[in-house]
Amino acid sequence: MLSFGSFEHKDVGDVLHIQMTDGNNNVVYNTDIPVRKINPNQTYPIKMDNTVTIPKGVTCCIRITCSSDGNSYAVIPTLNTTNRTDPNTYMSTLKMQTHAKSLNISYTYKFRQMYPLIVMIFELVILFVLCFEHISEMAGVYRKRYLKELKKKKKKKDKHKKSRSIKDVVKWCLAHRKFIVYIRRITFVINPFVIFLMLETMNQTLELMRPGVWPFTWLLLFAVELIIYAVCRRQSLSMLILNFIMFPIGLANLFIMNVRGTPFLPADILGVATATEVADHYTFSLSPSQFIIIPAFFIWNLFVFRIAGRKNVKEPLKLNIIKRAVPIAASVFIVGIMYNTSILEACKITDDVWNKVGSCQKNGFYMNYFINLHYLKVSKPSGYSQERVKKIIEETKSDTANTSQAATGKKVVSNSDFKTNTSLNGKKPNIIYIMNESLADFSKIGTVNYNRDPLEFIHSMKDNTISGLDYVSVFGAGTSNSEFEAMTGNTMKFFPSGCNVYQQFMHDTTYSMSYYLKSLGYNCDAIHPSSAKNWNRVNTYNSMKFDKFISIDDFKNPEYIRYISDKESYKKVIELYEKRDKAKPLFLFNVTIQNHGGYLTNTNWKQPIEVEGKYYTEANEYLSSTKESDNAFKYLIDYFKAQKEPTIICMFGDHQPSIETEFYEELLGKTQDKWELSDIQKRYATPFILWANYDIGSADDVVLGNNNLENLLLKSAGIELPVYNKFIEKVSETIPVMNVNGYMDNNGDWHNYGSDETDEIKKLLDDYDILQYGYYSDIDKQKLFGK
After folding, report:
1. DSSP string covering 445-479
2. What's the pLDDT tens digit per position in 334-347?
3. What's the pLDDT at 175?
4. CA gap 328, 319 in Å, rounded
5. Is the model's pLDDT at 3 over the cut of 90?
6. Structural domains of the chain, ranges and CATH numbers in brackets
7. Mean pLDDT to the nearest integer, 23-42
C-alpha cells in the first residue's frame, strides 16, 4: 500500500514508476501507475506478483519516480513517510521482518530531482572561491593599482564619460576601504536576520510562522549580537560567535523533534549529558532543504570572516567604556521590553503550554525558546502563604473524608475506591517499585492487531493483582518527570511547562516515598542500569535519602537487549533482596532502560511482534522489545511467588514510545489533526500492574493519575498515608485522574483546566498548588510529611 498525502494533480507528473530491487540490486518488481488513478490523502494498493517475496532479513530498495510528456523526472505526488532521502527519485531502504508482498512506504518532497544537488554544487563553488580569495587582500591589491593609475592620469577631467564595466565597478568598490567598512556594518545588522531565516527554514517552521514574529526574532538575535560585540568589540567576531551559538541550538531542536516529537526548550540544556547516553540508538537524517541550508550557513560565515577588519586601535578608557555600555544598554532594553511587558502578547505571540509543537511552528523556534525562558522557575501561586499551607494541613487532618471514601455514583474505578490493606495485621511487606522504560499497553487505548500478544503474561495476571491505566505527564521522553510524580505524589501540572524537576528544582532534602518509608524503618535502595548522572539521579536519590544507588557501573557482564535488559535489572533486584538486612523491610525502586528509544536498531528478536495489515518499522521493534519485558516480568513474579516473606510489586510505564505517528493514527482511528483531548490523553496512558504474594484483592481497568500511584501502592502495602498524601487522596475522590494536559471527572469525562472547572474542583486544585509549592518552601516540611 502506498499512502499519499495532499497534492494537486496538475502539479505532479502523469505516470508513477515503482521499482523494487533486492539486496544484490536485482530488479524483482517493476510497475507503472497512472497518477489520475491516485486520490490525494488516500492509500493506493500495489498488486504484486505472488512470486515476489522478500526473505526475512534482506534489505530491499524501493525507487519511485514520476514522468510526464517531455519530462522524465516530474514532481511526484506527496507520500507520507518517516524516511528522508532523495526528492523526486524516492529511495527507501527497508528491513523486512517477514516475507512481504505489500509495502507501506512513506514520504517525499516537492523538489525537482537535481535541484538540491545543483544548489549544493553551486554552494561548494562559492565556498571554494571564498576559501582562496581573501576580500580584504583583494581590496589592498586593487587599491594599490587604483592609486597607481591615478598618478598616470592627467589632471584634466575627461570631457566624455567612459562607460564602466561590472569589473571596473568591483575594482572601484574594493579599492575604497570605507566600502568594506559599510559592507561589514550592514552585514552586522542583517546577520541575525539571515541566521534566523536559515535556521527556521532548516527547522521547517518559517512558512508556518506568524508574520509579526519576524521583526521580534530579529530584534532578539540582534540584542544577543550586541552583547557579544560589547565584550569583544569586533563586528565580524561577534557575528561568528552568535552564529556558532545559534546553529548548534537549531540542530538540537532538529534532533529532539526527531526523537520525541516536541521542540527543544531551555530546560533541555540540562539534559544534554543524558541525551548523549542514548543518542547512538537514534537515526538522524536531513531533508533536501536542510541539506542545502547547512553548507549555506558555512558559506555565510566564511563571508563574514573574509570581511573582517583590522584589530581595533587603542582608545581612551572612557570612550571604550561608552562603546561597550551603549550596546549592552540597548540589548537590555530590547530583551527587557520583550520579557517583562505584554508587547509580545499584544502582537499575538503567545505560548500554548498544551501544544508545544504548535507554538514552535507559529512562533518559530528561537522566539518559542525565548518565551519558554519564563518557565525556568516555579511561580508562587496566588494566595500562597505559610499560614494558608498550615490551614490546609489542619483541615486535611480533621477531615474524615480523606480516608479513601469514594464518591457515590462513580463511573470509573480509581485510587480512592481502595482502602488501606489490613491482611498483614501491621506487618510491613517488602516493596518493589518498578518504572519500566516506555512501557505501553496499546490494547487498552485503541484497536490494533498483532501476530501475538506482546504483554501476554501481564494480561494473564488476575489473582492478587490490581491493574489499569496510569496517566502520566510526558510522551516519548521526560522519564524523570514521571519518576518524580510517582515517587512524591506531586503533579507536573503545577510546574513550569517544559521543565525537568530533577535537574532544576531538587536542591535539598526531598520528602518522597523513600524518605517516608525510611522513617518507618525500611532500607531503601535504587537501581538504574545506566549512568548515575542521567537526569541528575546521583544527587536526587541522595536528597530522597536512598541508602544505596546501583547504576550501570555495578552491572558486571550484563545481558543486553538494545540496552541492559529488564531481566538483568530484575536479577539485580533479586540479588539485593537476598542480601538484605532481614531485620528490616526492604524498599527497592528500579528504573529499567531496555525499551528506550530509538527503535531502528534492527535487533534480531527471538519472538518478533508485528502489527498486522501494515508494516511499521519502529512500532514492530518496540513491540518486540516489550515482549522481552513481559517475559522478564514473569521471571521476577515467579521468583517472588516462591518467597514466604510478604512482598508487593508495582510496575508502571514512564511514558509511551515515540514511534510512527501513522501507527498512533491507526490505533486511535483518526488522523492527528482530528484528535480531541480524550484522544491526546490516550497517548499519555501507560499500564500499571500491582501484585503481591499476599491477599490484596483483584481489580482491572482501574484509572488513576501518576501522582496517585504512590497512594495505591502504600495502601495495598497496609501502610498509613502521611498527611500530604492524605490530601492527595482527598483530591482523587473528586478528580480521579489529572496530569499536565487536563483532568478526568468521576464520570470518566476529560476536561481542560480553567474553563471547565467547577468551584469545588477549582478550590481543590488551588489548595493542591499551594500545598505543593509549600513542598519547596522554607516551612517545616515535617508537618507535611509526618503522620
Report:
1. TS---BSS-TTHHHHH--TTEEEEEEE-S-SSS-H
2. 888 888 888 888 88
3. 59
4. 14
5. no
6. 2-113 (2.60.40), 184-375 (no CATH), 431-724+741-756 (3.40.720.10)
7. 70
Dihedral sign (CA 466, 437, 675, 666): negative
User: In which element (H, E) is residue 596 found?
Assistant: none
C-alpha distances in angstroms, 112 versus 67, 74, 75, 132, 209? Answer: 12, 7, 6, 32, 25
Least confident residue range of 280-289, 363-372, 518-527, 708-717: 280-289
Instruction: Let me know: does 587 contact 514? Beta carbons within 8 Å.
Output: yes
Residue appearing with cell numbers 490551614: 391
Q: Give me the amino acid identity at 20.
A: M
pLDDT attached to residue 572: 96
Task: Residue 252: name the closest of 274, 270, 268, 273 by CA.
Answer: 268
Residue 616 is classified by DSSP as -
Q: What is the CA radius of gyration of the chain?
A: 31
CB 64 within 8 A of CB 90: yes
In tens, the pLDDT along 390-447 reads 899 889 888 754 454 555 556 788 888 899 988 898 899 999 999 999 999 999 999 8
* Residue entry with cell 491516485: 38
pLDDT over threshold 90, residue 634: yes
CA count, 13 A, side-chain hemisphere, 252: 21
Grid coordinates representing 74?
A: 516530474
What integer pLDDT is reported at residue 101 of this predicted model? 32
In which region does residue 41 sit, left (phi positive, over 0), alpha (psi from -120 to 50) or beta (all else)?
Answer: left
Provide the pLDDT for residue 678: 93
Following DSSP, what letter does each residue of 476-532 receive, concatenated? SS-HHHHHHHHHH---GGGSPTT--HHHHT--S----HHHHHHHTT-EEEEE-SS-T
On average, the pLDDT of the chain sits at: 80
428 touches 521 (CB < 8 A):
yes
pLDDT for 119? 58
Residue from 39, 47, 17 nearest 30 by CA:
17
Q: Which three cell numbers stand for residue 190?
A: 542583517
C-alpha–C-alpha distance, residues 577 and 650, integer Å: 16
pLDDT at 174 over 90: no
Distance CA 466, CA 649 (A): 11
Q: Dig out the grid coordinates for 123 from the structure.
A: 554552494
Cβ of 504: how many Cβ atoms within 10 Å? Answer: 18
Largest CA distance in the chain: 116
Q: The sheet that has 15-21: what strands, in order across it? A: 27-34, 15-21, 59-67, 90-95
**Main-chain phi, psi angles of 150, to 5 degrees:** -60, -35
Confirm if 465 and 483 have CB atoms less than 8 A apart: no
Q: Which residues are bridge partners to 105 per DSSP?
A: 2
Angle, alpha carbons 433-439-442 (nearest 5°): 135
- Do the beta carbons of residue 433 and residue 690 sit within 8 Å? no
| The three three-digit cell numbers of residue 215, written as one number | 521583526
- How far apart (Å, rounded) are the C-alpha atoms in residues 137 and 355? 52
pLDDT at position 259 over 90: no
DSSP state letter for 381: P
Output the pLDDT for position 29: 73
Q: Cα dist. 302→141, 365, 636, 708 in Å? A: 20, 24, 60, 56
User: Which pLDDT value is given to residue 339?
Assistant: 81
pTM here is 0.67
Using a 10 angstrom Cβ sphere, with 0-12 exposed, 13-18 middle and 19 or more buried, the burial of residue 648 is buried
Which pLDDT does position 233 carry in this prediction?
Answer: 84
Three-state SS for 147-206 is: HHHHHHCCCCCCCCCCCCCHHHHHHHHHHCHHHHHHHHHHHHHHHHHHHHHHHHHHCCCH
| CB proximity list for 368: less than 8 A, separation 6 or greater | 263, 351, 356, 359, 360
Least confident piece of the model among 56-65, 304-313, 423-432, 579-588? 56-65
